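I am writing to request your help with a piece of structural work I have in hand. A protein sequence and the structure tokens that stand for its backbone fold form the material at issue. Please examine both parts with care and let me know of anything in them that strikes you as inconsistent. The record follows directly beneath this note.
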Amino acid sequence: MKLRSRHLLGLEGVSKGEIVAILDTAVSFREILDRPIKKVPPLQGKTVVNLFFESSTRTRISFELAERRLSADVVNFATAGSSVSKGETLKDTARNIEAMKIDMVVIRHSSPGSAHFLSRVVDANVINAGDGGHEHPTQGLLDMYTLREKFGSLEGLRVCIVGDIAHSRVARSNIYGLTTMGAEVSVCGPETLIPREIDKLGVKVYHRLEDVIPKVDVLNVLRIQLERQKSGLFPSLREYHRFFGVTKEKVANAPQPITIMHPGPINRDVELSADLADSEHSVILQQVTNGVAIRMAVLYLLGTSTQ
């Protein structure tokens, strides 16, 4: 199945069939990652530029590995030392890069909507690697892949996203993707970190971790963005950990096994206890590995499309 769009800008509006196509394609690429020779030729002759205007380790390396595994030529763009530091606009940066005959652009930017804007001003395929607090579609996809790999199906799976929902692009992509796939999604966090009317997206809202743990199969724990802690969204990190930190003691009281996810990087013993992050409950390292396979699938489906 082909994707309807030439770009992957978010999971809002992406159909169940398209999500299944991406996840199924990723299965084949996941097998390739376990081979002695991990390189295949589908994007040979294609040039991909990674436009990262925000700091990133996992996502940038994951995309670069995926591109190289598919035999693409890769160009990495960093804001420091570039014309952006001299005042060049995103539009001019993109058009200058495209004039160099780039086929695909992976963009991470602090401004919501930057990937959508880029898709309107360049002819290359655009993949959103995170735009402000809007969406992070490949993270949502790799989370769904990891859960489908463990549980066999996403239909009826009970998933709670815990933490800073208001500022999280990961939360939005997970909500859009998981609800489309038939999962039961809830969110949990302090009232100051939960957007108003988020229930209109089809999720349940909790403000006590103790209320949600007995009712879910999965806790997807979000990073507390320490740079926002100074703005008074909660009294202190110690108090946040006391009430909303996910610990081994809290999940031990659940009547059912709990699977723990985290998009990284983890603030250990703040939003997630170190022993739980490293326990048998955790699929965090599987998420990292599966991220390469998902990004290979997205690059392949967009890069080989005849649309």
